[in-house]
Amino acid sequence: MADHFSQFHIDLLTACEEDWQSAAGVYSLALSAGLDDPVATRALAIGLTVEALHAGWLVPGDLTAEGFVPWTGVSRDHAHRVAQAWLGADDVIVGVGDVAWFDITAEGSERLAQRDAL
To answer: Do residues 111 and 5 make contact, with C-beta atoms less than 8 angstroms apart?
Structure first.
């Protein structure tokens, strides 16, 4: 897969380095694209999140009383699960805790550091 590293990915990985991000947080980051349509903003957020999952930069999971619990399985399955849950949500703009939470992976931290080193 080609390394498509956009400003959105930089912002998303930076946010995930600071704290776990919800799908609602990802949607908020996608708002910076300036799209007028919430459905288009959701599509952008889903697409770029799926790219980050496929690239291995993020891992989805659940937030429990013990903290972040990554999902088991492979990124392809995670990406499908995230996209289906997001598209199946009752509202276009999902709430905190809906769909999934995201954490940066070692690969994501390395990719962000490579960008910072330029």
So the answer is: yes
Report the pLDDT value the prediction gives residue 115, as an integer from 0 to 100. Answer: 79
pLDDT at residue 118 in the model: 56
Measured distance CA(100)–CA(23) in Å, rounded: 6
| SS3 state of residue 3 | coil
Phi, psi for residue 86 in degrees, rounded to 5: -65, -45
Please tell me the distance from the alpha carbon of residue 37 to that of residue 81, in angstroms, as a whole number.
Answer: 24
Nearest to 58 by CA among 43, 79, 30: 79
If DSSP codes are grouped into helix, strand and coil, which group holds residue 67?
A: strand
Contact call for residues 105 and 58 (beta carbons, < 8 A): yes
Taken in order 22, 116, 50, 58, is the CA torsion positive or negative?
negative
Give the mean pLDDT per block of 10 residues along the chain (118 residues). 71 94 94 90 94 95 95 93 94 91 96 79
Indicate yes or no: pTM above 0.85. Answer: yes
Sort 83 into a burial class: Cβ within 10 Å, 0-12 / 13-18 / 19+.
Answer: middle
